[in-house]
């Protein structure tokens, strides 16, 4: 039985990787972060483009930050993610 669980776990991990890798690759191609070789290329395999290294590094940055100062200085009252989704669903006529 533990061997069966290992096989199932490996299959789930592989499926998750394949599911996540597709959109990431599409995004990198769309941003021209990967050069696809053509007849004029000096390389024969897809290669990261040099001009976009900063963009790729920025993908890995932590973009979470405290908003306490903005709330205090601007008198802002941000809503939670869940409240925002509910409001958008109501605006789109998808929820009551």
Structural descriptors:
4 helices, two-stranded antiparallel ribbon, 56% helix
Structural topology:
Layout: H1 2-30, E1 34-35, E2 47-48, H2 53-59, H3 68-74, H4 81-91
Antiparallel strand pairs: 1-2
Explain how this protein is built.
The chain is extended. The termini are far apart. The protein has helices at 2-30, 53-59, 68-74, 81-91, and strands spanning 34-35, 47-48. It has 96 residues and is mainly α. The protein has a domain at 65-96. It is 56% helix and 4% strand. The protein is built from 4 helices and 2 strands; from the N terminus they run αββααα.
End-to-end Cα distance, whole Å, is: 47 Å
Radius of gyration: 22 Å
- Helical fraction equals 55-70%
Count of runs of 4 or more consecutive helical residues: 4
Order of helices and strands: HEEHHH
Described by strand count, sense and barrel closure, the largest sheet is:
2 strands, antiparallel
Instruction: Name the shape in a single word.
Output: extended
Give, in spatial order, the strands making up the sheet with the most strands.
1-2
Structural class: mainly alpha
Instruction: Tell me how many strands there are.
Output: 2
Low-confidence stretches: none
């Amino acid at each position: 039985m533990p061997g069966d669980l290992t096989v199932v776990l490996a299959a789930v991990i592989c499926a998750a990787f394949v599911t996540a890798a597709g959109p990431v690759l599409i995004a990198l191609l769309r941003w021209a972060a990967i050069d696809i070789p053509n007849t004029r290329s000096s390389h024969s395999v897809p290669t990261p483009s040099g001009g976009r290294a900063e963009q790729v590094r920025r993908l890995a940055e932590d973009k979470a930050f405290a908003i306490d100062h903005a709330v205090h200085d601007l008198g802002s009252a941000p809503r939670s993610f869940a409240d925002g989704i509910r409001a958008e669903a109501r605006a789109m006529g998808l929820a009551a």
